Amino acid sequence: MKRIYVHSFKTGLGTIRTAATDKGLAVLSLPGESERLFRARVRRYFKGYEVNEGGATNRETEKQVRQYLGGKLKHFTLKLDIQGTEFQKKALKKVASIPYGKTSSYGEIARALGAPKAARAVGSANARNNLPLVIPCHRVVASSGLGGYGGGLAMKTQLLKMEGAI
């Protein structure tokens, strides 16, 4: 049977929850998402998986997230288990390549993917990003301003300020 490991830890932002498969980190929930919603999301994406506590990938994720939030880590080096359509996976891999302290627009990412009219699809992929912080969707902004963020605009602003992007 396939297994997924779950873990939670407290940070200055609040409680972060993670889930990892044998392939890599699969889900990271931002503070504000309840444990109940987190576990429901894990069950939805990983039907039939046995859920266990702990896991080496989750412990490494905690270490790297703490380093990132402490300003000591600029790039995550975790194995990832990205879920979604092929376009969503391509868009999220492009988002993951945005350097620390920089931003990119939905349109710029769409053009880089060779789909210049797909800015909304890039936004949709970002909205479904199960790995915020690690795949830094907070670095993607709208052409007219900050755009949205699953953790809220206050958290997006805080992360971008921490990185020196705004």
Which key terms come to mind for this protein?
166 residues; alpha/beta; 4-stranded mixed sheet; two-stranded parallel ribbon; 6 helices; 6 strands; 38% helix; 16% strand; globular
Question: Can you summarize this structure?
Answer:
It is built from six helices and six strands; from the N terminus they run E-E-E-H-E-H-H-E-H-H-E-H. Helix content is 38%, strand content 16%.
Could you characterize what this model shows?
There is one protein chain. This protein has 166 residues and is of the alpha/beta class. Helices cover 38% and strands 16% of the residues. It has 6 helices and 6 strands. Strand 2 (15-20) and strand 3 (25-29) form a beta hairpin. Helix 3 packs across helix 5 (119-127).
The overall strand count is 6
Average pLDDT value?
A: 96
β-sheet strand percentage = 15-25%
Instruction: Note poorly predicted spans.
Output: none
What general outline do the C-alpha atoms trace?
A: globular
Q: Structural class of the secondary elements?
A: alpha/beta
- Straight-line N-to-C gap: 46 Å
Largest sheet: 4 strands, mixed
Helix content: 25-40%
Order of helices and strands: EEEHEHHEHHEH
**Order of strands in the sheet with the most strands?**
3-2-1-4
Number of helices: 6
Rg over CA atoms, rounded to whole Å, is: 15 Å
